[in-house]
Amino acid sequence: LNGKWKLPVGYFLQNKITATVQAELVKSALNHSHKSGLKVWGVTCDGAYANLSTMKILGCKIGDNYDEIQCWFNHPIDNTRVYYIPDACHMLKLARNTLGNNHVLESNNGFIKWEHIADIYDEQNKLTLKFANKISMAHVHWTNNKMKVKYAAQTLSSSTADTLEYLSSIKYPRFNNVASTAEFCRVIDRIFDFLNSKSKFSKGYKSPIFKSNIITLENIIIPLIKYLYTLKFKGSFLYTSAKKTFIIGIAIAVKSMFSITRELFVVSPYFSYFSQDHLEILFGRIRQKFGANNPVVPNVTQFKTAMKQILLKNSIKCRTNGNCNSFDDDPVGSLFEYKWAKKKNREEFPTQSLNHNDDYNIMQNKLDLLNNLQSSSICYEAKRSILYYIAGYIVRKINLNCESCKESLLLQ
Question: How confident is the model at residue 350 (pLDDT cuts 50, 70, 90)?
């Protein structure tokens, strides 16, 4: 399970498909895999409603809480358990989409508001510095990049929660009642870290499961799942509404991961290998075959040609700005590796520079903004904290590498 081998086993050219037909196709794939000597531990899919219905037809049961979930179905040949694993990346994006579309959710501790995240972006623009988070215009206006996982992960992250808590602690305007929003961001971040472990050396929530820590992780992660079941929208529980997909999907994925680990316990699986990233990367390669600037979905002939060339001839690499990132050298490529000579770096800036007056006006505007910010004691305190953090980071790095610099910077 921790290996990097992966290979497409089939494709079905269909515009729309029902859950019943899809269930039969899953059974067919399981039968052929069994005949080839492969042991199938799980089936991964995204959050489409047809996929959830498919798993119900195969034998999974979705209850009203974590304990009532049956996250597996019987293999059609040997009756072993095959686990249903919703893709963690899609569930993360659905969590972001749910908050972004509805703007306000309710928890037992208060209101979770998208407005608080947008306020972080506005205040960082005014300060011209960031509170150690990644929030940018692309994160706030997420509908333009709603397929990119990194934007969802950086939005609902612990760094966002830390920023909200810090601004609340210094009585920053517009950040009075942000505890519930910070709690929601932190819960989603911790669950995603757990479902996205990639290395046995990872620590904290990214640590894989071992015999020594499985009880501890269950005591930490399962209460986070139960927290999601308490979320409400307009007075009704979110898990009973049409917006329930990310809650149900995360709960099933967590239960499947614990169940697979308990059944194995010879090797601790890396949960990121159960994700749908490999399929997304394959689709990205197929699109890349016909040009990075061609957004058109390939037709049947183009798809078959791309599949042949990906498997037999050309090593097609995905763009770095795809929907998901590749963290390993994917062996699903060509039988022969082609290495092209690197192009020389072109000039990143035009040769014509701004004239002196434009340059002076830009500098004057920045100085005016800085003076306005310093007139507010709270804004000044926030900016001073950011600069103090940056300076400490620089000193720590210099302290590791440069003895003469350390003697000049640090007090004896």
Answer: very low
Q: How many C-beta atoms lie closer than 10 Å to residue 172's C-beta?
A: 19
Q: How many angstroms separate the CA atoms of 82 and 54, rounded?
A: 13
pLDDT given for residue 354 in this prediction: 46
Which of 200, 220, 240 is the last residue before a domain boundary?
240
Per-residue tokens: 191: 């669950």
Does 401 map to a domain?
yes
Task: Give dist(CA 48, CA 195) in Å, integer.
Answer: 19
For residue 135, give the 3-state DSSP assignment: coil
CA proximity to 225, closest of 249, 188, 201, 251: 251
Q: Which two tokens stand for residue 269?
A: 């699986």
| Domain hosting residue 183, numbered range | 89-240
Q: Of all residues in the chain, what percent are helix, strand and coil, respectively (each to 5)?
A: 55, 5, 40
DSSP 339: -
Coil, strand or helix at 310: helix
Domain count, the chain: 2
Phi-psi region of 86 (alpha: psi -120 to 50; beta: other; left: phi over 0): beta
Taking a C-beta distance cutoff of 8 angstroms, is the pair 392, 399 a contact? no
What are the pLDDT digits (tens) for 1-50? 777 777 788 888 888 889 999 999 999 999 999 998 988 999 999 888 88
Q: Which two tokens stand for residue 86?
A: 């919703």
- Find the length of the chain: 412
CA distance 231 to 111: 10
DSSP 318: P
Percent of the chain with pLDDT over 70: 80
As a dihedral over the C-alpha atoms of residue 50, residue 58, residue 94, residue 237, rounded to 10 degrees, the angle is: 100
Last residue of a domain, one of 199, 221, 240: 240
Which residues does residue 111 pair with via DSSP β-bridges, in sequence order? 106
